[in-house]
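hey m, so remember when u said the tokens were messed up on ur end? i reran from scratch. heres the input so u can diff it against urs
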Amino acid sequence: MRLSQDGHPIGFGTVDGTTPDGSIIWVVLDGCPERRMFHREDYVRVEINA
């Protein structure tokens, strides 16, 4: 999947976890050893590769 914010790419990665209501996701970005947390209020765009 691809992440971006305000039209600027953040990177590619894999969702590692979410809260039940989907308000928080944890993502392991490609090339990074640790996961990052994103809140719904961060307005990060998540695009799923099909």
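this time it looks ok to me. DSSP finds no helices and five strands in the chain. if urs says something different then somethings off w ur setup not the seq
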